[in-house]
Amino acid sequence: MDIKQEISRRRTFAIISHPDAGKTTLTEKLLLYGRAIQSAGSVKGKQNDKHAVSDWMDIEKKRGISITSSVMQFDYDGYCINILDTPGHQDFSEDTYRTLTAADSVVMVIDAAKGIEPQTRKLFKVCAMRHIPIFTFINKMDREARDSFELLDELEKEFGIGTYPMNWPIGCGVNFKGVFDRTKQRILTFEDAHAGGSRIEAIECSLEDTEKLDSLIGEYSRRDLCDELELVEGAGYEFDLEKVRCGELSPVFFGSALNNFGVEPFLENFLKMTTEPLAHKSGDSMIEPTDERFSAFVFKIQANMNKAHRDRIAFMRICSGKFDRANEYFHVQGGKMIKLSRPQQMMAQDRAVIDTAYAGDIIGVFDPGIFAIGDTICEKGMKVQYEGIPTFAPEMFSIVEQIDSLKRKQFDKGITQIAQEGAIQMFFLPDSGMERVYVGVVGQLQLEVLESRMESEYGVKYNRIDTPLSLVRFAEGDIDFKKLNLMQQTKWVKDRLGHDLLLFTAEYEINWALDKNPGLILKEFSQMN
Ligand code: G4P
């Protein structure tokens, strides 16, 4: 296969959902179809000790949530599929946002009983902003569900995009009889426990064949189905692949991941509709994936993913060409040619060293501490620099103090590395060292992960003092920072690159600072990145 063929068979997407909607279960079933795993590793849960392949950190296991994002690759029906699993917990939205930058489309899993939940709302907005195609899987139809029309209406209203149900559910909960496949005009009947990868036989049956329909789903359900379908056809959106591909129309699939119901038709339809690897923006030009020169950007850095491999991995999305392990590549931000060592593809904890990879693929490379999120790596002579990945403003700040001066080095190393990964943000008091730093996060869970990782990976304990600070601004201007006139609660800090920042507890402090310090310019956090 030549490079173009290899690239054109790639499909790279992220799965997002609110925790517990069934993302892990669906991912697992997809992997089963791709024969990437042999049996459902059983979904993580309190009842058993097995964990889904996409989870790995201890703290996730304890809390039963996905924190870190992992990448999985498998072949299915001639396609080469890259799934980016995203952390579902709202505290980890920043990591998720970054992961979305590496995906060409998104699959959103929704719990049929709950509809859109806060986390999906946030993520969805990011996708809509970036015009990423969004495919919706409405899960848990085997349980009591909300009205299907209501769910679609909610999606449309909340996100301002159209929906197109690819199939239509016949009842729900104990009365769930299956779905009607609108494209192929056939019925898929639901029976419990399709789990384990068995195929579900579709039954060809036209809506006019009332006798057969009645025998399949009963007269009552048949009448409901016909009425509902009439409404869907009459009042719903028309199918338009172009609109799907620019994120304006979301194909919707109803099913039950746990029962493996509706997963295979979803996968087949999804693969046909989603796009090949897309072009990426570099300055004013777009770099096509089929450009034979290799280029990639780093979207995630992760240390110590597995205790057996104490290392730091930079994950990069290949944007163009073919990666060859034997070659050296140019690290744009570092200004140097480098060899990407131990390039690997990940399957959650398992990794395989690879020799080649293509545009659309995600590879992890060993990072000796030279990469930062958003960095570009490319073939020599290729003038390319991919757009940076925005850093989100932290909303909580804590002071972290060393308590054991003998472990100063470990403390410095641990907190610096974890900050470089983007798992927390770190700020310093001007003119003081690392013994007392401000840690900025989006949510409480990040602080818990920091504590647990500092202890287990670096053997360090520290004191943490939570503060009421919640707002951050970059501070500039022709002004002597040492003489700034600030309210007592306001703090002046610096980031790793030496930028000046002010931390505030409330909006009025910002106005106060501007009022009392003519010449001071305060900028929103994202403006600087
Ligand atoms: P997540 O990754 O989105 O957080 O969700 P996950 O797949 O872990 O699924 C959350 C729970 O929902 C799991 O239950 C899982 O078995 C269940 N589930 C997933 N898909 C379906 C479905 O189609 N139907 C039904 N009925 N359940 C589904 P758990 O963690 O084992 O138990 P519990 O804590 O929910 O009781």
Q: What's the CATH H-level superfamily name of the largest domain?
A: P-loop containing nucleotide triphosphate hydrolases
CATH architecture of the largest domain: 3-Layer(aba) Sandwich
At the first level of CATH, what is the class of the largest domain? Alpha Beta
- Compute the number of helices: 13
Mean pLDDT: 84
Oligomer: single chain
Radius of gyration: 25 Å
Extract low-pLDDT stretches: 41-51, 63-67, 193-197
The portion of residues forming beta strands comes to 25-35%
Compile the SSE list and pairings:
Layout (H helix, E strand, L loop, with lengths): L2 H6 L1 E8 L5 H11 L24 H6 L7 E6 L2 E7 L7 H8 L4 E7 L6 H13 L3 E6 L8 H12 L2 E4 L1 E4 L7 E4 L4 E4 L12 E3 L5 H8 L1 H17 L5 H5 L3 E6 L8 H11 L6 E3 L2 E3 L7 E9 L8 E9 L1 E3 L3 E4 L4 E4 L4 E4 L2 E4 L2 E3 L3 E5 L9 E3 L17 E7 L5 H13 L4 E4 L7 E6 L2 H15 L3 E5 L4 E6 L14 E4 L5 E5 L2 H10 L4 E3 L6
Parallel strand pairs: 1-3, 1-4, 4-5, 5-11, 6-11
Antiparallel strand pairs: 2-3, 7-8, 8-9, 9-10, 12-13, 14-15, 14-23, 15-22, 16-21, 17-18, 17-23, 19-20, 24-26, 24-27, 25-26, 28-30, 28-31, 29-30
Helix pairs in contact: 4-5, 7-8, 11-12
Bound molecules: guanosine-5',3'-tetraphosphate.
